[in-house]
Batch of 2 targets.
Target 1
Amino acid sequence: MRIASFEILKPWRTAVVCLLCLFALPCLTPAAAPPDAPPVILIQNATILTVSHGTIEHGSILIKDGKIAEVGTSIKAPKDAQVFDAAGQFVIPGIIDCHSHIAVDGSVNEGSVSVSSIVNIADVLNPDDIDIYRDLAGGVTVANVLHGSANSIGGQTVVIKLRWGLPASKLPFEGAVPGIKFALGENPKRSNFSIPGATPRYPTTRMGVEETIRTAFAEARDYKKTWDDYDKRVSGGDKNAIPPRRDLRLDPLVEVLEGKRYVHAHCYREDEILMLLRVAKEFGFKVRTLQHVLEGYKVADEIAAAGTGASTFSDWWAYKVEAYDAIPYNAAIMTRRGVIVSVNSDDAEEATHLNQEAAKTMKYGGLTHEEALKLVTLNPAIQLGIDKRVGSIDVGKDADLVVYNHDPLSAYAVVQETLIDGRVYFDRKRDISEREAREKEKKALMEKEKKAEEKKKAEEKKPGAAGEGGKKAGARPDEKKPEEKNPGDKPKAPQTVAVSGGAR
Amino acid sequence: MKSIKQMLRIAPMMAAACCFCLSAYGQSQPPSTYALTHAKIFTLAGSPIEDGTLVIKDGKIAAVGANVEVPAGAEVIDVKGLQIYPGLFDPITQMGLSEVSAVNATVDSTETGAYNPDVVAATAVSPSSEHIPVTRAAGITEVLAVPDSGGFDSSGARGVIGGQASAIHLSGWTINDMLIKKSVAMVISWPVIETRTFDFATFSRKEKPFTEAKQDYEKQVNELTDYLDRARHYAQAMGHGGPSDYQRDLKLEALAPVVRGQLPVLVFANRVRDIRNAVEFCDKQKLKMILAGGEEAYKVKDLLRSKGIPVILRPTLSLPIDEDDAYDRLLSQPAELAAAGVRFAFGSFDNSFARRLGQQAANAVAYGLPYDEALKAVTVYPAEIFGVADQLGTLETGKIANIIVTNGDPLELSTEVKFLFIKGQRTSLDNRHQRLYEKYLNRPKAAN
């Protein structure tokens, strides 16, 4: 009986695989053939917004081996170059999203404990997440993929390039300093998430958040000392030294103390921002970026003095009490007070128009065109310590570029191409031209699946062919499993609240 | 206990917010006469007027044109170099009904229970909401406050009949000043077949087989059918005498204008199956339907056009509903609907993102919608769809003077609103955000 039902299952499995293929379709076409980098590309006649050294009208960019080889007005096309005429188009450096949750398999929150430094987002990168492609289509080339905000000290984070079509191992930005997520305020103290009947998790106040972080770093310091002592004994020739027991939770915090891991801290209110800066000073580490930092404008001088970056939203506000004093002028005030500021998405959709979000700072606070553009290019590159490689259009940097049909700081601008490492990863014309074929492919797969279903039904009708198992195997194929992603991250549509808490 | 504590925590904040807001209004003056001169005027009822004059008197547009005389005693504002448009109209918001969406004490947008046809948005609109001046500063002069319409951080717990949407001006001391029309539509959340739900009582996911989910759906639709039948009978009874002749039922009474086809139903549905079912249902029930959401409206564009059903589109800046949809599916949908002759308007479906209304429309233009259509879809089309176009939506003599004066295209990101008039009153652009900006811009340098 069992064997029989397994046999019955077979066509079903095919059907299910087909179904899965169907949902993965847009991945299939571009993913099947990751774009090959032609050795040499010349982009001509474009308005080039270099971000680092002004605008070049009718400019050219020469790309060799994935790097920017030359930028100027009169570059001769080398013999073997593939030439793009970009007349009337605008080229900017690839957009860098300093706060993203794309390409993550499953929930971004390990919400069970208040210090979850043991987990690492890099372990769960999903290269097939369609949001990679969607954000690429919005000009994003680099994303700081973060753990959620359910814990005072959250999980380890990773910077990726949106190399759509390549395996997970090729996504991380080579050499980028890894990070760790911290979170302050309502989310780690679980103000808006209570599970009926469950005992509240410490901390439930901002005071407790401070002590959670201090306690963890006091432990990390002691732990570090045991290792330092051990290393000293070993280097002193002590052959009997016994290594201390590894603590996977404290290892990343030791890296923070040693400056080998960046702290990206989710925060809202001015008091908690100052709290974290004090704690960092006490334990001798730097906070690399304050994330969201919606009241950063109130303590901009203090943030600037600490040498800490600020990565904020353009105009989100009032979705919770700690966001009630959020203002769209935040980025401008902090910029004027000497803070390196970026505008981030925290959301796969918001990331598709970060250029527009940056543009709002010209209206709210009067940033210049170049300052506004920096908020999503050079500044996040500096914040992530990757500005030697990306963030502006300069010779020697990675050829991560976005081509728009209008000024990218206009709501009417549409991304035409996105390049990473000199390869075209998104091409709007190609995307549109392939739609018909994709639709056909999808229909064919659905047809195939339907036939398999009919065949199965016919077999089921034969007496004795299928027992309980057959019935079970017939569980509805048309039920697409809803996305399991933490809905707390996706704020703009009516959503259920995640059990484990949101990220923003 | 917890909720009382929460209330106590919020109360001082709300009180402060109210004071803040009232002092900022400053609009107690009676209506006066204004003449806006030397403007480029986009009336949206004909071609733009270069170097035109617009006269406002007693809250209404008294004259508009190239050769209009400035009446004696008018306050003249020379707006040379600027442009005049009708104020923008956001047809789906929770304005005044929800302040801080994560804090229940500040949220009045969703009543409990499946059938609440008698509840009216205008009742709970807080004129002191900080959202009102913030939204106004973005050039939005009137909105619909819509009960049970979701929004940022919504729990997703929705009824079937959510209540009555109210059209309001974004200015006024009390709701009486603000009201355009108390009841403009009855909100229906079209039931969907859901196999997975989230139970807030136990904070856990629940799953059920498709057949069961379908039965639940059919049960909901049958209940709705029965409810409307009862309303129809009730309406008949109402037509045959006063309330003393029958037992009053306020819920059924509220539905009488709906079943009589006088009050439209604003039906929230996104999936093509749900839209089709809703259209079929409203057709059968002879209800005047307006579709809200419409993420897959393009799949039934011919049906919507042939039935004359207008759509309030949810934000164009949204990810496609399915993984295998084109990445720009919602951005290009408005162009597709316009080409097919479907009437639509843009809505923010929110409060804190209401000021993105122009951006939503502009993005549709970037993906193929003619500019004029986009502009109308945030002004005159919503006014038409909700039956207030005789008063609002264009700059024509006799209409309510809800007007914005800008330094450019009102849909573009960098454009600023320079003057704003609501009911012919010059209305402050001051708001919480700009006040906090000015305060902290002037913070003395911190001694570190």
Target 2
Amino acid sequence: MESDEELIRRTLAGGNHHYGVLIQRYADYLFGLGMRLTAGNRELAEDISQQSFLKSYTYLKSFDARKTYKHWLTGIAVNCFKDIRLKEQRYAPLDDTNEASYSPRLEENSDFFNLIQPLDDNEKIMFTLKYVYDYRTQEIADVLGLKTGTVKSKISRALEKLK
Amino acid sequence: MTSIGAIIEQEKAVSYDQRNKQLFSFYTLTLIAQEQASRRLKKRAGISLLLIVSFLLLFLAPISSLIEGFVASLSTLDIIDIFKLGVLNYGLVFIFYKFLKKRSIF
């Protein structure tokens, strides 16, 4: 199996089909992350996943080979999630109208989604990466571009909220 | 009430699968190709516009008097000068072509 770095090198050399292998390799991972962050909203999770792959391709030249592709992609996905949330907030007043609106189909297994519901977006991201994906604090800090101390304090604040 | 640890363990065991990964990958690659094509088209349109504007400026601006002077001097040219001009022109075209090719514009 070719490594991520090798596939990136080949993609940059002009072989777009190699990027297809990367997409298939991380499609489930990004979709799962999207599902967890959006509390089981399949459509949003697919959007996040697709936007992340598009952005990742656009900025592939700037990929730092000292990092892992998975972590880099996770950072992009997290930013896509934040962008989507910002857009949602921007258009939120529309929900107040009495017009019929689209309500997304949410997944059944809602224990985890209910658990993280009281957390704000950043706390949700950190909590999910730390406890579901077993990321180390340093890795979360790298992915989110924050200091380790900030991540630690936010995670402990999140745990306090959940108790 | 289920503890936080138990809920997390339960969640870890859940696997979320992207529907039809091959189709998803194909569609994403198509979007990428579409974006690249649109970017290339914009680049080409920009260069073409620049060339048209430069061409028009060259003939409409006061520089035309310089060109007239140059054209007048052509009557005194000998075969060597014509050869030099030819080499110079083809050289410039070649450099310009290589530049555009390198930047994937043409």
